[in-house]
Amino acid sequence: MTLVMWIVIGLAAGWCKRVIFPGRPGGFVPTLMLAMIGALIGGYIATYFTTGDLATLAPAGFISALIGALLMLLVAAKLRI
Question: Does the pTM of the predicted model rise above 0.70?
């Protein structure tokens, strides 16, 4: 359940990015994929250092999944991927 929530967070962050900056290069699907990957990485890192259990949805994992998705999108925008 936790992994599904991280994926949903990443997809939501990617969709918001495409709505706010529609004319930027890159497609809709790559933006969603980058945000989803960032959310998975961020959520996993926070869960590893806090509870270590992927079965429960910890608030730290939720917040870091959002931060991870936003950081991944920021890095991709700066590198113009």
Answer: yes
* Gap between the Cα atoms of 14 and 6, Å rounded: 12
For 5-52, the pLDDT digits (tens) are: 888 989 998 888 888 877 666 788 888 898 999 998 988 888 888 876
Whether 13 contacts 35, CB under 8 Å = yes
What is the rounded distance in angstroms from the CA atom of residue 23 to the CA atom of residue 8? 23
Which structure tokens are listed for 22?
């529609």
The tens digit of pLDDT for each residue in 49-61 reads 887 677 677 788 8
